[in-house]
Amino acid sequence: MRIDIITVLPELLRSPFEASILKRAQDKGLVEVHLHNLKEYGQGKHNQIDDYQFGGGAGMVMMVEPIFECIEKLQSERKYDQVIYMTPDGETFNQSHANQLSLQENLIILAGHYKGVDQRVRDHLITMELSIGDFVLSGGELAAAVVSDAIIRLLPGVLNDETSALTDSFQDNLLAPPVYTRPAEFRGWKVPDVLLSGHFQKIDDWRHEQAYQRTLNRRPDLLDDKK
Ligand code: ADE
């Protein structure tokens, strides 16, 4: 898989991809992440990428030309499955989006800034608009990193068995059950007996029941759309 991220702040996005699982995934050749500085496509001697909005009002708008130039250059080099725009008014990103996107070959992610991008970019270039939650970040970079992380860890070979993505919260619309490690007792607080029993069926049943109760208590909405 290949992910191309377009941003005015590539330096903000470098470190998330240079550590731990995301770095290992790239080192193993399972994913390529390319950062593109939109300013390189800016206009005039100041490489302008934003301008005042028509009709007046506070806040700058990201201009249509630099974004088209950058994305069309990429699209002339390979076919992209989705051109994603990170924006607080997009669809709320969830595990199901992550699963679907992890099956794609090439993705572009555009990180918005200022008041957002000229609407013509959204109308004629973007194929998917995603938000990572009902709050406003100072730019789409961290949101792009969140979405990329959630996708990349699902690629075959990225995680080892111990950290298998199949047992994650949300993967079956249930939150993950509680987990414990040594010692079996700390300050009088004991690990549930069943986990020490060696009885795999009982452990499985206990985990499923705990996952269900936790979901019922914390996120009953997830049970509503259980297929
Ligand atoms: N840009 C600013 N806030 C955002 C959010 N919540 N999700 C995605 N992109 C954003």
Radius of gyration: 22 Å
- Tell me what portion of residues adopts beta-strand conformation: 15-25%
Let me know the average pLDDT.
95
Bound molecules: adenine
End-to-end separation in angstroms reads: 29 Å
Task: Identify the CATH class of the largest domain.
Answer: Alpha Beta
Keywords: Cytoplasm, Methyltransferase, S-adenosyl-L-methionine, Transferase, tRNA processing
Catalytic activity: guanosine(37) in tRNA + S-adenosyl-L-methionine = N(1)-methylguanosine(37) in tRNA + S-adenosyl-L-homocysteine + H(+)
Subcellular location: Cytoplasm
GO cellular component, one term: cytosol
Keywords:
227 residues, 2 domains, 9 strands, tRNA_MeTrfase_TRMD/TRM10, S-adenosyl-L-methionine, 5-stranded parallel sheet, Alpha/beta knot, EC 2.1.1.228, tRNA_m1G_MeTrfase_C_sf, alpha/beta, Trp Operon Repressor, Chain A, binds adenine, tRNA processing, two-stranded antiparallel sheet
Please, could you describe this protein's structure?
There is one protein chain. This protein is α/β, with parallel strands linked by helices and 227 residues long. The chain contains nine helices and nine strands. Strands 2-1-6-5-7 form a five-stranded parallel sheet, sandwiched between helices. A two-stranded antiparallel ribbon has the order 3-4. The mean pLDDT is 95. The protein binds adenine. Residues 86-88, 112, 131-133, 135-137, 140, 143 line the site of adenine. It comes from Phaeocystidibacter marisrubri. Its main location: cytoplasm. One of its GO terms (biological process) is tRNA N1-guanine methylation. GO terms for molecular function: tRNA (guanine(37)-N1)-methyltransferase activity.
